[in-house]
From TrEMBL, chain A:
Positions of the Activator of Hsp90 ATPase homologue 1/2-like C-terminal domain: 26-160
Any Pfam family the entry gives: AHSA1
CDD domains assigned to the protein according to its UniProt record, in alphabetical order: SRPBCC_CalC_Aha1-like_9 (cd07826)
Record-stated family: Belongs to the AHA1 family.
Organism: Dyadobacter psychrophilus
Stated name of the protein: Uncharacterized conserved protein YndB, AHSA1/START domain
Automatic annotation (TrEMBL), chain B:
SMART domains for this protein: HTH_ARSR
Record-linked InterPro entries: ArsR-like_HTH, HTH_ArsR_DNA-bd_dom, WH-like_DNA-bd_sf, WH_DNA-bd_sf
GO MF annotation list: DNA binding; DNA-binding transcription factor activity
Entry's transmembrane regions: none
Domain HTH arsR-type, residue spans: 1-88
Keywords, sorted A to Z: DNA-binding
Pfam family, one: HTH_20
Protein's name in the database: DNA-binding transcriptional regulator, ArsR family
Length: 164, 108
């Protein structure tokens, strides 16, 4: 089922942050459950060509998590981990994120996940990620794990589609 | 100084210049008429865009025309596409899960 709800990704050039925004046809409580309960998280979070394993998920303020994505062809696995700063159900999660595939440790980003109630039993998800440096953000973008799309790019993209 | 496509399109004036010359190749004078800033300021933006290979210059008789290089711009679109696609796929799966959860809840 292709959704009519657009995924909006904003990553302005030269900045250390990126934003992901999406609306869902479900109550905030349900969206929060799908984000916090391992059973549901595993069904949607992993990239489509990878299997996802939850190594650890202590989903509370002061908790931590570790997820592992494994390529189906066995070519490799990628770990992610972080500390959970705050869980304020069902509206907010603040946590760190570190990709374990980098040659050195310490390239940690900070994520704010916010769920806003909308009329008609709908919910808006906003994710803001703040990186240690512009290079860290762009590096992750280039790895294909985290990429951004700026409003300005979008306009040019639309223009390109029309023109060429 | 970093000179790549992303730096080039970080500036709103440069994005406007690209939008204009993507529609039609333009002389420096014709381009400058669209902006309130000085001609020197526009020239500086053009210089950066040229260094990033987004704009090329062509001499036609006595006039110079600026051309847009769509191939270079495509690099940006291609670079961004995988991430957008990954999240769209994730969220589409999440939609399906939410539909199931809603049904379960109603069934109780």
């Amino acid at each position: 089922m292709a959704s009519k709800n657009e995924t909006k990704i904003t990553a302005e050039p030269g900045k250390q942050e990126l934003f992901i925004e999406r609306e869902f046809e479900a109550s905030r409580e349900l969206v929060f459950r799908a984000f916090s309960e391992p059973e549901f998280l595993m069904q949607w979070m992993g990239p489509s060509d990878m299997d996802m394993k939850i190594d650890k998920l202590d989903n509370r303020s002061g908790g931590s998590y570790r997820f592992v994505h494994t390529l189906r062809n066995g070519a490799g696995e990628f770990g992610f981990n972080g500390a959970i700063h705050e869980v304020a159900a069902p509206e907010r999660v603040i946590r760190t994120f570190e990709f374990e595939g980098l040659p050195e440790r310490g390239h940690v980003s900070l994520e704010f996940l916010t769920l806003t109630e909308l009329p008609g039993d709908r919910t808006r998800l906003s994710i803001q990620s703040i990186f240690k440096s512009v290079d860290d953000r762009d590096g992750l973008v280039q790895s294909g794990m985290e990429v951004g799309l700026n409003e300005g790019f979008k306009k040019l993209d639309d223009l390109l589609i029309k023109q060429f | 100084m970093r000179r790549d496509v992303f730096q080039a399109i970080a500036d709103p004036t440069r994005r406007a210049i690209l939008t204009l010359i993507a529609l039609q190749a333009m002389t420096p004078n014709a381009l400058a008429e669209h902006f309130d800033t000085s001609r020197q300021a526009v020239s500086k933006h053009i210089k950066i865009l040229t260094e990033c290979q987004l704009v090329s210059q062509e001499q036609q008789g006595r006039e110079i025309y600026y051309h847009f290089n769509p191939q270079k711009m495509k690099e940006v679109a291609d670079w961004l596409a995988p991430f957008q696609k990954m999240w769209e796929e994730r969220f589409d799966r999440l939609d399906n899960i939410l539909e199931k959860l809603k049904t379960q809840k109603d069934g109780k």
